[in-house]
Task: structure prediction
Amino acid sequence: MTMAALKTQNVAQLSYQGKTVDLPVYFGTDGPGVLDLQGLYSATGLFSFDPGYTSTASCRSEITYVDGDKGILLYRGYPIQQLAEQSDFMEVAYLLLYGNLPTSAQKDEFVQSINKHTLVHEQVSAFYRGFRRDAHPMAIMVGVVGALSSFYHDSLDIQDPEQRQIAALRLIAKMPTLAGMAYKYSIGQPFVYPQNHLSYSENLLNMMFSTPTAPYVVNPVWSKAIDRILILHADHEQNASTSTIRLAGSSGANPFACIAAGIAALWGPAHGGANEAVLRMLDEIGHVDRIPEFIQRAKDKNDPFRLMGFGHRVYKSYDPRAFVLRQTCHEIMGELGVKNNPALQLAMELERIALADEYFIEKKLYPNVDFYSGIIFKAMGIPVSMFTVLFAIARTVGWISQWKEMIADPMQKIGRPRQLYVGKAYRDYVPMEKRLEENQ
Ligand code: ACO
Result:
């Protein structure tokens, strides 16, 4: 697959101190065009300055499209709602990796290839025993995923497309196994090996919840919900963790190390860690009567509290993933017979009050994907500390697809941003005896 060449017939002009520079403007398939600033520094001596990358396209990509104003999310052109309703996670993984939906034969072959790699090297289990029992599973995942690079030397040559392919399959296949092991370790139960007759999400649940002492039958409602959540979280263009992976990968680092870097970035509460934070927040609110107090705190500039699961850098309307999850949440509660689920009721009321509040309306703060995923996980008995791990399993597909795309892109170069230096100007070294406190 070749990346579309950048073509332009448009040029923007920037004038600065008597010099005028032509900046090409490129348009992709959809969405805003981009101003090519690559020649800016040589022409003007200026850098662009965009902390948080609010106006910066860091790469070109064919994988995922987000229109935050209209609430649209497309994987390879397909709307997320249709994929969530009609597809399954393995099919979506194939789509993100290779660009098209698989035929039946292609899908079978892909699933078989994934199944070939579900086991982790037996020695990996020794790593787990080095962690404290109360280690956060995300801390374990950052460590063990990075450590995979010390086990699979035959998929580290990033210049070899075949090795890149094997690394991608290995990562997608092994993430649920590693996650299941992280959970089992935290509760002191034996590790459960993957069972390749199970689907991807069934396997994940089996590795988390089965024990050697009793047969475990995966609840089909749960596995369907997990599968849907995995689809919804699989990719989201150049978010913080994906950009981290692209930056780490741009230096030529191996894919296992890059995915470990992505897991670290995902962990933060402003990103994937928000699903965990939503549940903790709902626990803290405790009762619908206390919602106004927390809404007030969220609006108070002097209070660092934010409504977790609300707001998004890109979505300025309802996050389409949250919309699907809201429905899924109701389906699950219905099918599991969990009537009047207190966390769900609290979440719905919080959403209702926030969406009617002038502050949230004006700032276009809507529920994001993390708002409902935590409630679903909680209803299934998945511990809060595993929420972000499940997100990482799903996002591994997007991460590795984006990493593969980047490595194969002839325009790829090491990511090396510059800065606006605001520190001390040049000064000479001061010997110790001449240092005055006020000079330091
Ligand atoms: N609660 C209260 N106020 C908020 C919230 C919130 N959740 N989110 C944003 N705001 C306010 C900010 O205080 C700011 O107000 P100001 O303009 O008066 O200063 C304004 O809305 C814009 O917020 P920014 O932080 O500048 O927006 P940014 O795009 O940088 O941040 C983010 C987006 C990090 C997601 C933010 O909305 C947030 O912290 N949300 C809560 C955490 C969360 O749910 N994260 C998950 C994101 S989805 C994901 O990663 C899968």
User: Anything to note?
Assistant: The radius of gyration is 24 Å.
